[in-house]
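Figure S7 source data.
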Amino acid sequence: MTKQERAHTAKTILDRLYPTVPIPLDHTDPFTLLIAVLLSAQCTDKRVNLVTPALFKIGPTPQKMARLTVDQILACINTCGLANSKAKNVKRLAQLLLERHNGEVPATFSDLEALPGVGHKTAGVVLSHAFHIPAFPVDTHIHRLAQRWKLSNGSSVTQTEADLKKLYAPADWELLHLQIITYGREHCPARSCHGLTCEICRTCFPNRRTPITTRKA
Ligand code: SF4
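Tokens for the predicted iron/sulfur cluster complex:
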């Protein structure tokens, strides 16, 4: 199978398994999605969903979040990893949305990545899922599966993103991002299998007999 055929096979199976995928982080608008994604660094989505109801109750908008003290924010999120720096970033981010963007979440990579605590992956998630602007944010699951399906060589997450964007149409990126993460969580653990057991690898690599190694994100 060629790389393009493997990409098509993976998408066909993913579409059958997950015709729709909810965004795993609870949110109500671009601002609450941005904050939830920021909090999800070094933290599980489940944990983020446990802490955001209290945070969004007192800080549902940039205006209200900017008025909170760092300690008030920290009290809501202190069970998340890196809570101290995240609390400072959340407050400063809300202030900057008011100062630079009229209290709105901007819809460009450059404006989003200029905000504290917002890297390329976070910006891509917000652009894709809040604004439906084509982006293909690569997390650890996508980086691993792209290698196991030999859609990318895994030299870096930047390379994985570029390789996947070449293989799939922009209109498919938003759903594929969620489908691959869901498949990774449900079927493809980081520490086992390595390309031998489930449907996508068996279809793409029927003659594979030995485990393959992958590079971490
Ligand atoms: S066969 Fe293994 S490596 Fe391939 S997708 Fe399934 S779980 Fe992942």
